[in-house]
Amino acid sequence: MRVATGRVVSGRVIVEGAPLPEGSLVAVLSPGESELFELDARATEDLLASIAEAEAGDVVDGEQFLRELWDRR
Q1: What is the pTM of this model?
Q2: Number of domains in the chain
Q3: For 46-52, what is the mean pLDDT?
Q4: Could you tell me if residue 1 is inside a domain?
């Protein structure tokens, strides 16, 4: 996982830094003009731990996750 920033130019998000591979799936968070996106210390630790797990390959396939979620009903 990679966290990147960018700007909207002519209706498209232009990512700063090294380009992402063609076809990459991305999530875009867009705070309002006065909204801040802040994490407390615990949430920051959880986020960094999750990123480390993903980078180590300790992930669940999306389809598998949805199957397991469905089976819990």
Answers
A1: 0.41
A2: 1
A3: 89
A4: no
